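Anyone opening a protein record will find just a pair of labelled lines. A complete record is shown below as an example:
=====
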Amino acid sequence: MFGQDIGIDLGTATVIAYVKGKGIVLREPSVVAVNNISGEVVAIGHEARRMLGRTPGNIVATRPLRDGVISDYTVTEKMLKYFINKVGGKFLFSPRIMICIPSIVTEVEKKAVIDAASNAGARKVYLIEEPIAAAIGAGIDISKPCGNMIVDIGGGTTDIAVISLGGSVVSTSIKVAGDKFDEYIVKYVKKKHNVIIGERTAEELKVGIGCVYPKIQDMEMDVRGRDLSSGLPKTITIYSSEIMEALEEPAMMIVDSVHSVLERTPPELAADISDKGIYMTGGGCLIDGLDKLLQEKTGINVMIAEDAISCVAIGTGKALDSLDIMDRVSRKG
């Protein structure tokens, strides 16, 4: 089989793969279970995620990416190899792969992504900034000389960028996103209810009743955790108003970062953004009321992109169409 072009959204929480001509073909958690004694990979993706917090001492289920960058190089390489083989089977030629990265990463972090993908079987590796991929995936024409603002909230990072003529004019990347929301929920429940809950339970609370803007009706959800005073399992009821209190700080960090990017935006582009609004993408933007909070604090219309979770992967996939042009330019260079 001829090597296909593959676009990969290598997310802290989820890996999404897009194959040219087929669309999105894979969506799995970026979790790997490793045997500590032999160093052997036990499970990857959905199967490994089910093991989080439930493994014996010799098996550790971890996320090899933290805050949008590779934290465990060897495990990331094995995970990529597994997903590339799952997507394309056996290739006659190795595929060309485009991977998206946060807008602010070091050269060392870029090289780690390129090396991991190359060793996992890529013929050639290209990198694309997450906000640019998100804008393409959201259906925005970024080639025109007018300002578009993208706020991409993933699992590990929130990437904010003002894009014009196909490039980022002003951008920032902060390590406050979906995972940080979960951490704040765990801390809040421990402090207020004296009960420890796991990250998966915190995520269920966030998705089920989480909000950052007052709801008309307070929702509730029963969760199980470990009582700190007795050490025994305990069931408690959590309300959406409590989750809102827990998430106030990280939500305001994102709002403040959007504010600082707007302050650094050239006046002409700022006027465009005021007219067209701010686009939100990524799974983290789906938390109830985040668009309303951002709209209230900036005074600019905020829109959540259609299929917000897949926007980056779709944009990475669409950018594959320009690979031949990039290859020709690099050969001429």
